[in-house]
Structure formats: C-alpha cells, structure tokens
Amino acid sequence: QDGDLKFPLESVKKLKELMGGNRHINPRMMVPMAGYSPCQEKHLPEEFWPVCKREDAPMIFRRLSLAAEDDLCEICANAACAGCF
C-alpha cells in the first residue's frame, strides 16, 4: 500500500525485481534510482499501469520497492502492523 493505492504483494515483489534488474553494463549510463520509472518495462504488472500516468510515479515505485525488501516480514510489507519502522 502507498497512500490510497493498494497492490498485491506478489505484484510489488515483481516490481522490485524489475527495478533491481535496471542495471547497465556501463555505470556511466545508469539512471539514478530516484528518476527511474519502470513504466517502460514490458513485464510491469498491469496493476501499476495507472500509476505510470501520475507525476509522482517514480517515488511511488521507489517506496513500493522498499516495502518489498527481503528483511521485512510480510506483515510489515503489507502495512498491517504499526511501529515496524
């Protein structure tokens, strides 16, 4: 969940994979993560397509990707508990 937007955990994990796979061979050509948006990825789950139309899409994707970090329990990743951070 990000604000009033809710997405399935499996879709968020797929988003994290897409964002983590955004690596180029030449480090000079890498796009900074703050400006990266996975909207051009052909495997982006369709739940995220409406987010791509928003100006704040890169920040939403970044927050969702952080929520899917492996060191968080699924309860915290789903924002079902308070005080996890």
UniProtKB/TrEMBL annotation:
GO terms for MF: guanylate cyclase activator activity
InterPro entries per the UniProt record, alphabetical: Guanylin (IPR000879), Guanylin_sf (IPR036382)
Matches recorded under Gene3D superfamilies: Guanylin
Disulphide bonds in the chain: 39-52, 73-81, 76-84
Domain of life where this protein originates: Eukaryota
Annotated compartments: Secreted
Keywords: Disulfide bond, Secreted, Signal
This protein's GO CC annotations: extracellular region
Pfam entry (one): Guanylin
SUPFAM superfamilies: Proguanylin (SSF89890)
Record bears the keyword Ribosomal protein: no
Functional description taken from the UniProt entry: Endogenous activator of intestinal guanylate cyclase. It stimulates this enzyme through the same receptor binding region as the heat-stable enterotoxins. May be a potent physiological regulator of intestinal fluid and electrolyte transport. May be an autocrine/paracrine regulator of intestinal salt and water transport.
PANTHER family named in the record: GUANYLATE CYCLASE ACTIVATOR 2B, GUANYLIN FAMILY MEMBER
Family: Belongs to the guanylin family.
Protein name as it appears in the record: Guanylate cyclase activator 2B
Native source organism of the sequence: Alaudala cheleensis (Asian short-toed lark)
